[in-house]
Amino acid sequence: TIKDTPYRLGFHISAPANWINDPNGLIQFKGEYHVFYQFHPFSEKWGPMYWGHVKSKDLVHWEQLPIALAPFEDYDRDGCFSGSAVEHDGKMGLIYTGNVWLDDQQQELKQVQCLAWSTDGVNFTKDCSNPVLSRIPEEGSSHFRDPKVWKHESSWYMVLGTKKNELGKVLLYQSDDLQNWKYEGVLAENKEENLGFMWECPDFFELGGRHVLLISPEGMEQEGTEYVNLKQTGYFTGEFSYETMQYKHGQFFELDKGHDFYAAQTFLDDTGRRILIAWMDMWEQEMPSQEDGWAGALTIPRVLSLDKEGRLLMHPVAELDSLRKEKTVSVKEYAIENELVIGSADMAEIAAEFRVDDPGVRAFGVKVRCGDGEETVLTIVPDECKLVLDRENSGKGPGGGLREAKLSQVKSVSLRIFLDRSSIEVFADGGACVLTSRIFPSSDSLGIKLFAEGGTVNVQSAEVWTLGDAYI
Ligand code: FRU
Predict the structure, then answer these.
(1) Of all protein residues, whose CA lies closest to atom 8 belonging to ligand 1?
(2) Ligand 1 center to residue 22 CA distance, Å?
(3) Ligand 1 pocket, residues with Cβ under 6 angstroms
(4) Catalytic residue among 22, 260, 281, 420, which?
(5) Which pTM does this prediction carry?
(6) How much is the ipTM here?
(7) pLDDT tens digits, residue range 386-411?
């Protein structure tokens, strides 16, 4: 079965079989966490979109639920595209984009916003007034999708992604009843900078007294080591006024510098945490797990915060500690000059703290999933003050070599790594430097090593926990 195939993830959300992309409808409802996802139940490739569904009591152990939305109405017949969830009058509401192709080449489309309701959080009924929003304002175009809805005081608000003349935008709406939506104007847009021709999956929220606009732009051009992937996910921070509906923001920053991170969405839980989950893949990439009948997964949940400069930080949710099975290694105060094998695992959490006093050190870091000719390498390059993730020799496709992120300093570096059977998520620099990538190593490439080149690095501590499966 798919469950026994080598790339099958142990503690990440994916479908029982077949294709998934964006996370949708993140919400805590009646004490349980619900996550929906773009799902094609009939193939390991993208197709007419359904909403798959999982829920959890702890954000770690997930239970698969029946499909929540299927594309069978005139207004959504070619796909229930991405959207969000709200709680209203004790019910869970899903607001999503109905997609209809107008031609056989899937070039022309009609996109409208729709609602569906559930009292039990499992079975959903589409609203009879659907679509609730189909009129496209002059500032938008037929690419009109991915509604994210939230409540402020007694009103509902929604952001939608669109484009006009090949420039991405986010539109803002207001409603008293979730049915009738008033257009408030453009919240933010690409004003002919390198910010993409279409802005997908917007999310807008308050954090640390500021307002963050998260977007997934298509069509940004690579600038050095920035915007290297086909599509990006990033954010602005700024000030928003509900009186004037105006948003003033600073520059765009990429959120995760790995190969596979897109279409992120957030929600607020009852502990006050702003939690983010993203699709842990990238469009148009080779996906070796398709041979086994599945593709796509979501990242581990991450708590967001803002640093003093207004940059977003991401931290794995603390609940993930419950995946730890066995601490297999604990190294303290150990000097390395070349390599030190510290473990063997395909699902592990690795925490390593390095101190570098030797100016000769050219590179140091961690290698995982090491085996015959295979390794995935995380290198800190002191001279360039950066962290590099190299998946060139990770195993089967998709290749794509290196991704890198700046570090604020390299004297004392802490890495926290979550390794699953076909993914790696690395957190460094207090959550300012995060890289997420899919890797497809052989099942017997299991080695975990620390390494140093050119001098001596002091490993202040290194710990490895093997992790257990998260499916109920
Ligand atoms: C982003 C996206 C969304 C759309 C969905 C379709 O990855 O293109 O804009 O709603 O995927 O599956």
Answers:
(1) 200
(2) 7
(3) 21-22, 38, 49, 81-82, 97, 145-146, 200-201, 262-263
(4) 22
(5) 0.98
(6) 0.99
(7) 999 999 999 998 878 999 999 999 99
